[in-house]
Amino acid sequence: MPRSRSATAAVALAAVGAVLVGCGSSATSTGGGSAAGVAQDPNAPFEVWTRSTEATAKVYEKIFKEFEAKTGVEVDYKPIFADFDKQIQQRAAAKDLPDLVVTDTGSLGVFTSQGLVGEIDKAGIAGGGDVVERAWNNGRASDGKYYAIPFSTQAMVTLIRRDWREKVGKPVPKTWDELTDLATAFTKDDPDGNGAADTYGMLVPGTTDRGYLGWWASSFVWQGGGDILKQDGDRFSVAVDSDETVKSVDYLKKMFCGDPKLVQPGALTTGTNDAHAFFETGKTGIYVTGPYMFGRFDKNLGKDKYEVVAAPKGPAGDTVLGEGENIYLMAGSPRADAQKKLAEYLISAEAQQAGMKGDPTPVVRLPVNSEVDVKAVYDDPRWETTAKVYADSARPFSSVPNFQPFRQQFSETLNSLFSTCSNDSKAELGKLAENLKKELQTQGMAK
């Protein structure tokens, strides 16, 4: 009789962080992801989670069905969007993690610091040599070792209501000043022609949930020459109170506190999933977001009504956030061989292309496999723009063991500054800097 998932997990997660590296078929040599000494059980359920909406879950389902047909390995698939991180922590506390998880690169620090994943041997992953090195960096932690396998990459791009821009007679913005000028026109000059003052320039997912406001603001901070942390060798110092960061934050604050306000009502409590409707229903005209929104907006707004451009340059350039999704081989799995097989399939050219062809939303945005041609698969200049932005201007968050506390505290400080319209950004960012210095020390990364 097959052993139940929970019965196996009780033994498997007894040493959740003790993961060995190698390649082969035993529990201790599968390319990473299984705890040392975990009893393997080919009859145990093979549970796979993705951070997915209903639309993206359908794409994953097709990919997993193809994997099952090719390998005979059955996938117990659970797409989860709401409270994904909370549910992972609940399962970790119950010593019953899923076997494999596909979620964003921001989870790397949490998973490694808690011992929920183990080191990955790149050489032990079939097809790993076809994965571009820059994508592999998404799975590399601050110690220089790899704890995840990249699945998809992306860069933030700027979406603009083309029809509105033409109506108000403004050019495609190339600089911050031109971006502000366009956002102001979208707010004041009735771009939809309905005679009502009901449009806004900038769409901002400004909630502090998971540090979203800090996530959105990061590209602007870098474009202004600022940063949250500054790396020096293998150590970091706090840069969130630098003059460049303060100026960047003040530039953003004018969007929330100026006359007119350029952001949508309720921006500081708007989550990403709620934000999209403001753009597609004609309430806002500029949205800095990822390319995963193209399919939805094509369908709900119309492909001809908006354009995709690289970020307008700030005082220090056009740097934007570049991140993506990783494949995490979770510790304590009784199905180490299946973990490795699925990971190798997901980075194959076949699975990468299938993920890119998701309708309306791809789960692979920019492929990590160098054999996949973005232009040939998408045949869409917007994706070529995204690929160029990723290659030329994208960067990730700092590679401290766990960046989430830094992003969260930065988000909360910004939210407070923008909600109160405080005139002393320098002082508030200075207070934040002291807290971030303590966090750096706690993580052992202070310069």
UniProtKB/TrEMBL annotation:
<feature type="signal peptide">
    <location>
        <begin position="1"/>
        <end position="27"/>
    </location>
</feature>
<keyword id="KW-0732">Signal</keyword>
<dbReference type="Pfam" id="PF01547">
    <property type="entry name" value="SBP_bac_1"/>
</dbReference>
<dbReference type="InterPro" id="IPR006059">
    <property type="entry name" value="SBP"/>
</dbReference>
<keyword id="KW-0564">Palmitate</keyword>
<keyword id="KW-0472">Membrane</keyword>
<protein>
    <submittedName>
        <fullName>Sugar ABC transporter substrate-binding protein</fullName>
    </submittedName>
</protein>
<keyword id="KW-1003">Cell membrane</keyword>
<keyword id="KW-0449">Lipoprotein</keyword>
<dbReference type="InterPro" id="IPR050490">
    <property type="entry name" value="Bact_solute-bd_prot1"/>
</dbReference>
